[in-house]
Amino acid sequence: MPHGASFDLDFHSVPANSSEEPLEKHYVASRSRSQKGILVFLARDAEQRLLRYANAGVIKAEQATEILRFVQFWNKHTGHLPTELVFDSQLTTYESHSKLNQQGISFITLRRRSQKMLGAIYSQPASAWRRINLPALTRIYRTPKVLDQRVTLNGYDGELRQMTVMELGHEEPTVLLTNHLKMGPVELVTRYAQRMLIENGISEAVQFFHIDALSSMVGMKVDFDMQLTLMASSLYRLMAQRIGREYTNAQAKKLFRNLLDLSGKVEIGSDSVVVALDKRAHNPYLVASGLHEHATPMPWFGNKKLIIQFA
User: Is residue 73 part of a domain?
Assistant: First the structure.
């Protein structure tokens, strides 16, 4: 699949159900507490809607610089740096922000709010704010107010653009930090809002691919489990694009339920394995995709070929 240029980044804590392993404690959102577990760094291709990278077993001492390791990995394996990275305020430090900027990588993130900062925001005159129209959001929060400023922060070399957004459905203002100096406020707010999709991707990995049900806490097996998750996610996305139409952006759960969770008859011959699928309402999508038109070699099964047939 082609590579996108923009990535959504996040951490996910896989809880350990054993107290025997010498693991660090991390905050587990689903349980609203910190407990022993494995910290996993995930990068999602914002254009292809696909998990591209995962690194399991990140320790707290390396958490802030994991974003730089991802950049190095991506540059090594693709020959170019990511164009844009989008992440929340907990992911890394301002020192790492500065290093990203020095490499020419654009980023959008949140700034942690403090009472002093909020006081400075609320004291701004009404003339400093402007209304914008967000066409992609619900009618209630379509016209928030924004305050566009330049700020300097400890650890960051140079100026950052700080955009404060009010009346977006939250009691407190949303404060965005970016080195995008020319991007319009509508595009900036909309792009960060799209970052929430990585949380949907993580939720899918937890619920459908069972990322929290690791086969072992041993480092090598954790990495193996994560690799299988990335491969499965990629294969489902490839299938969704091959099916097309209503399934182009479907989640893996829907693809499995509608198209793959089928019954049928299997006949094993001397040189082939023939799978005759029973009738089902969604089978025409599979027929139209042409996935059954070519036999699939199975070198691990005596060099037999897999043949799909429809009743």
Answer: yes
